[in-house]
Amino acid sequence: MTAFHSHLPVLQVIVPMLTAPLVILLNQKRLPWIVATAASLCAFAIAVTLAMSVMAGQTIQYSLGAWPAPWGIELAVDAFSALMLLVVTGASSVALLAGAQSLDKDIEHHRQPLFYAAWLLALSGLAGILVTADAFNIFVFMEISSLASYVLISGGPDKRALPAVFKYLVMGTIGATFYLIGVGLIYMMTGTLNLADMAFRIEDVADQTPILLAAGFITIGLALKAAIFPLHIWLPNAYTYAPNMVTVFLAACATKVAIYVLLRFDFFVFQPNLVGHDFQFTFFLLPLSLLAILVGSSVAIFEPKLKRLMAWSSVAQIGYITLGASLLSVSGTTASVLHIFNHSLAKGALFLVMACLGMRIAQLRIDNIAGIAQKMPWTMAAFVLAGLSLIGVPGTAGFISKWYLITASFESGAMGIALVVIILISSLMAVVYIWRIVESAYFRQPEEDLVITEAPIPLLLMTWVVVLMNVYFGFAPGVPIELATGAAELLHGQTP
């Protein structure tokens, strides 16, 4: 490993973070977008390099200030964090590459430097959560990304974003506070904030009340951040009223990063040390996951607003992710981590389609897209393919993770058949709400005076890039499967 390569974990955070104040100083048209996009692409290149190193069997650790853990702050990248870094930096880069014209429409010129600075801070915060091995620094980066996300969501022209982001702020603050209280209780009992050292020391005090309270505070706080049912109430409006490109970015990765932290804490710190915690984890999370899948899909079926429909679909898809983790098996956790990646591809593509439509129509409602496939054939064809991936049709990325989830469900014992039935029913429900949009776009007559052209080429091109990635990873899923399997084995204490 070269000297430069050894610094990649910290550069993953520093590059977007230090670019943010530079962007604020740029006020020429498109220059803030160019610099922000370049920083995001650089972060993505770093993530790809780190993922290749992990897949090659390298151990990636970085001690800030050359202070070894647990006395100093350690950064570490393994299979789980490498996969998540690809999702976060990839979502940011795609949204920025695709979104110049869309963001020009949503964000006034004089506010764009501040907007793109907030975007880079959100990216830096999310990346920081994924590379740090320190529980308190997770909180610091969580707050950086959250505060920047509030700015991004409320930055568009739709005033309904303000009450939506206020609800998000309140819920996010409660979640972060709960997490911090839990970390404080663990620090009080163990004297360490390093996750690996914490997992080692907590064994001696695992039966003490502060540790049990810490497990509850941390789990609930992260569940709020991850929009796990029924703590999801902030998500639909936040996704609906945010600028279209912000929704593309955050819907693909924000809640998944919170799930990443939840799984890290639960599998590394709590389950090996707290008696009966594994049973409690399944007892609470499995039924909530099933409710999320069924309720989220049911509401999506009857939702007339397109972005809100997709947001409720995300509630259901988060249910799939937590369902796999709640099975407490390597195969179930593999399905969970793999679905994080595949859902990011599918939902990212679908929200890119929403951005394409948003460039041409004022109200993103099912009634307003009647016959629009005649005017925007490439946009709606992209929607159909991305929708097939969300449903889980063979030949798409979505099928791979759902197949792994079904296989893990069969392996889970007596309840396996019931779980598979619910997964299949929810997939049919996804067919219904995707079909509602397809039926309106393809089989209804457009208004006679409807004058609409195809979406802008850069936006349409990036939409198709992500759509074709859904197809590619449906036929060649080797890389995400390898990383997801490695992540699952690590979480369950096995050597990949």
Describe the protein's topology.
Elements: H1 3-6, H2 8-24, H3 31-55, E1 60-63, E2 74-77, H4 79-98, H5 100-106, H6 112-131, H7 135-153, H8 161-190, H9 195-201, H10 209-225, H11 235-241, H12 244-270, H13 277-302, H14 306-326, H15 330-358, H16 377-391, H17 397-411, H18 416-443, H19 457-475, H20 478-491
Briefly say what this structure is:
By secondary structure, the protein is mostly helical.
Describe this structure in words.
This protein is mostly helical and 496 residues long. It has a domain at 276-496. Helices cover 74% and strands 2% of the residues. It is built from 20 helices and two strands. The longest helix is centred in the middle third of the chain and has 30 residues, at 161-190. The mean pLDDT is 88.
Q: Structural class per helix/strand content?
A: mainly alpha
State the end-to-end CA separation. Answer: 21 Å
Strand order of the largest sheet: 1-2
Beta strands, count: 2
The main β sheet shows up as: 2 strands, antiparallel
SSE series: HHHEEHHHHHHHHHHHHHHHHH
What general outline do the C-alpha atoms trace? globular
Helix-residue proportion: over 70%
Percentage of residues in DSSP E strands = under 5%
Q: Give the overall average pLDDT.
A: 88
User: What's the tally of helices?
Assistant: 20
Gyration radius, to the nearest Å?
A: 22 Å
Q: Spans with pLDDT under 50 lasting ≥5 residues?
A: none
